[in-house]
Hints:
The structure holds 2 protein chains of 2 kinds. Chain A has a domain at about 5-95 and about 165-250: 3-Layer(aba) Sandwich (Rossmann fold), CATH 3.40.50. Chain A is of the alpha/beta class. In chain A, strand 9 (about 170), helix 6 (about 180-190) and strand 10 form a beta-alpha-beta unit. Helix content of chain A is about 30%, strand content about 30%. Chain B starts with 10 loop residues before the first helix and ends with a helix. The interface of A and B includes residues 97 and 143 of A.
Amino acid sequence: MTKPSLNVKDLHVSIEDKEILKGFGIDVKGGEIHAIMGPNGTGKSTLASALMGHPNYEVTSGEATFNGDDLFEMEVDERARAGLFLAMQYPSEVSGVTNADFIRSAMNADREEGDQVSLMQFIRKIDEKMGTLEIDQSFQHRYLNEGFSGGEKKRNEILQLLMLEPKMAILDEIDSGLDIDALKVVAKGINQLRTDDFGCMIITHYQRLLNYIEPDYVHVMMQGRIVKSGGPELAQKLEEQGYDWIKEELGIEDETVGQE
Amino acid sequence: MTTEVTFPVQQQELQSFSKDRREPQWFTDQRLKALDQAEHLELPNPDKTKITKWNFTSFTFDPETEATASYNELSDAVRTLVGEENKVENLITQKNGITTYAAAKAELKDKGVIFTDIQTALEEHSDLMEKYFMQAVTADENKLTAAHAAMVNGGVFIYVPAGVKVEAPLQAVYAHEGNFGLFNHVLMIVEDQAEATYIENYLSEGSGDQATVNIVAEVVLGREAKVNFGSVDNFADSVTTYVNRRGQVNGEDAELYWSLGMMNDGNTVSDNTTYLHGQGSHADTKSVSIGRGSQVQNFTTNVIHFGKDTDGQILKHGVMRDRATSIFNGISKIEKGATKANGEQTERVLMLSERARGDANPILLIDEDDVTAGHAASVGRIDPLQMFYLMSRGLSRLESERLIIHGFLEPVVGALAIDSVKEQLYDLIERKVY
């Protein structure tokens, strides 16, 4: 089996006619974890949303392929069934649909009639994963994200990640709103997935999460593109010294993009 | 100016129809008087829906149906609803007003419970019928209630004596076929401290001739009586329906629960009104509807509080697709003197297409100071961000929509008081939405 790969080249993305991504490029392969770091307003979440196909973002130029297929030719659900997963910063609430029903439907979405996940298999798996994430049993029977606290929503995103076992995941600020204990638990869950068949892009402001999930590559985003890349030591340096030295080094005055 | 519409049934015909059915004189007289009223009264005037051009008068009065008595002669659709014969407990099925099957557990009779068709009730329980028939809903309200009193030709009578609790649900299935004009009446009297659950299904069989159906249900509750009334209306798009279901909650601490699945495919005007007279009495009205095609529907739910400490709840959710139009009116009225009354209502409409129309009108009319009341209403479309979220987990557009629709209806369907109605609705919703 070939390793999954996500290749993004010279990507430009706009929201309401404002260009946010200005020539973003990255290659992520199975077995690799890439951290995308950077101050607020530099286009990190736009990247995540655009790759998944969020309706408010318009790809104006550039390309992205997933396992060789043109991502932008695929519907949102096709991207997901191909193995792409986005843990969202602000997941929607859906009333009247229980978490368990939703996750089971999602697991069965790309399975044939005779190959569906049985109720017993499902229960066994969700019990195990909820154990890993130290999530209360009542979680399954609550309506999808409805009335969930910020931290509960994040854990629910990771629960879905562990249940669906995608080939490539983008985690959009999954660490914000989590205390240190919750962070460790979530990191443990993600580390379970680390194999050659799984690639991951972790979008974060802070180095904190990277103490528990060690990235193979670290990239810094400013002005809608990657301005610096390195190994885990780069994250460490950012933690200690902040972002100003990069701005100085590159002669950037305002690192943000699309702000009024 | 009103256009003169006349019904295809004349005095003489009605008289001989009544005679053939061996009806008591008071009933024949009432029919004839009502027929006269029907010619002169105006149509009902449901808020925000114009029904003056709807077909309420073009139909035949000949049921073209033979009475049968065997389970095996029932249609597949009816048998699916009632289940296997050996599991049938208390059931009456009718087609175009003619009883096609009836079964009742022996204990019903032992306890003095009456569960029979209207025609038999008139023969055997004329006194009870005279006391209650068309008293909660009266003939002189409008053209259609008068027409109903004049031409009633189907339905059932239920009487539960004081203190009797009927465990197994009383079930009725009313099939309609052809261009027959069905005037179906349900009269349910539940005396002090008695309890019963009644479930009815309306459905269309055979070809899609233009037809009209006129339904009146009257439910009367004594002190501490408890009634679950469930219905699933499912007429074809060629059938124009007028349905008036009314609860007369007379007794103290009585409880009436309505579970209404409004699943007709044709134009429908529905009035569901509950009068809370008894002190401490309670009414709970839950209804769901799915509109499709180009049908126009109007659902008005009233809960009118007269008694002190009365509690009225209205919860209605509707999903509109295609070019369907539906108006959801909810009226909580608290009369002077109904202190400590509480009236709550919620109407929500979800529109699935650009051309679907929905309107939710919650109205609180309060003439007493010492009360509580609240309402909520919303009309909207599916949130594109919800769709994005569900699809981002691999669910197709269709499957995502299906989940959102089920989720939208779940607060009503999931909370219905009668399990079998709940299950039927899950099934019907599935079929009607896709």
